[in-house]
């Protein structure tokens, strides 16, 4: 991470999004990041320049300083390759698509719920309804007494018991 990148972190904005039960972990992470930043800022951004003339005057072994200088200048410390930024960017794009889909589904649900609320508000109060009006508004709760009479509690089990009781004696469900 570069010096400018670590300075650009908005810790206050992140802290607002951290759940209360994870605040301690967040503060521990921030303390480690601050410690890393202090250590990084304590060192210069580039390596110090060596005074090769000083070493040439004071080192008596011939060619040793030149050999070290050539090796020192040829030395490169590889910076780790960034393999994760592209993965994070693609994951962010995917998450934005999912968030947009969720938002659209939620808006559709809100519309449906508001339509249900409107229809419920349009219904006459139950205290003022007749039984026929109730059945008209809620046909799914109608037990069908006129066309399909049954005995209370009007459950499927009770219906099966009624049908069994109404069969003529000696008639079985088995085919002969």
Automatic annotation (TrEMBL):
Tell me what organism the protein belongs to: Vespula pensylvanica (Western yellow jacket)
Keyword annotations of the record: CF(0), Hydrogen ion transport, Ion transport, Membrane, Mitochondrion, Mitochondrion inner membrane, Transport
- Compartments it resides in: Mitochondrion inner membrane
What's the family? Belongs to the ATPase d subunit family.
The ranges of region (Disordered) come to 153-176
Q: From start to end residue, where is composition biased (Basic and acidic residues)?
A: 156-176
Q: Which residues form a coiled coil?
A: none
Gene3D superfamilies, per this entry?
Answer: 6.10.280.70
Q: Which PANTHER family match?
A: ATP SYNTHASE SUBUNIT D, MITOCHONDRIAL (PTHR12700)
What InterPro entries does the record point to? Answer: ATP_synth_F0_dsu_mt (IPR008689), ATP_synth_F0_dsu_sf_mt (IPR036228)
Provide a GO CC annotation, any one: proton-transporting ATP synthase complex
Task: Name a single GO biological process.
Answer: proton motive force-driven ATP synthesis
Single GO molecular-function term?
A: proton transmembrane transporter activity
Record's protein name: ATP synthase subunit d, mitochondrial
- Does the keyword field hold Protein biosynthesis? no
Top-rank taxon: Eukaryota
Main function: Mitochondrial membrane ATP synthase (F(1)F(0) ATP synthase or Complex V) produces ATP from ADP in the presence of a proton gradient across the membrane which is generated by electron transport complexes of the respiratory chain. F-type ATPases consist of two structural domains, F(1) - containing the extramembraneous catalytic core, and F(0) - containing the membrane proton channel, linked together by a central stalk and a peripheral stalk. During catalysis, ATP synthesis in the catalytic domain of F(1) is coupled via a rotary mechanism of the central stalk subunits to proton translocation.
């Amino acid at each position: 991470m570069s010096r400018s990148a670590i300075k650009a972190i908005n810790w206050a904005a992140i802290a607002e999004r951290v759940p209360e039960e994870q605040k301690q972990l967040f503060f521990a992470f921030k303390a480690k990041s601050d410690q890393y930043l202090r250590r990084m800022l304590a060192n210069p951004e580039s390596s110090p320049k060596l005074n090769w003339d000083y070493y040439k005057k004071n080192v008596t072994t011939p060619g040793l300083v030149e050999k070290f200088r050539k090796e020192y200048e040829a030395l490169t410390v590889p910076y780790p390759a960034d393999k994760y930024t592209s993965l994070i960017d693609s994951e962010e794009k995917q998450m934005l698509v999912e968030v947009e889909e969720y938002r659209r589904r939620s808006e559709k649900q809100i519309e449906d719920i508001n339509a249900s609320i409107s229809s419920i508000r349009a219904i006459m109060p139950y205290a003022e309804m007749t039984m026929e009006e109730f059945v008209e508004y809620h046909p799914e709760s109608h037990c069908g007494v006129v066309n399909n009479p049954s005995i209370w509690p009007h459950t499927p089990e009770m219906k099966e018991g009624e049908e069994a009781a109404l069969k003529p004696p000696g008639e079985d469900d088995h085919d002969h």
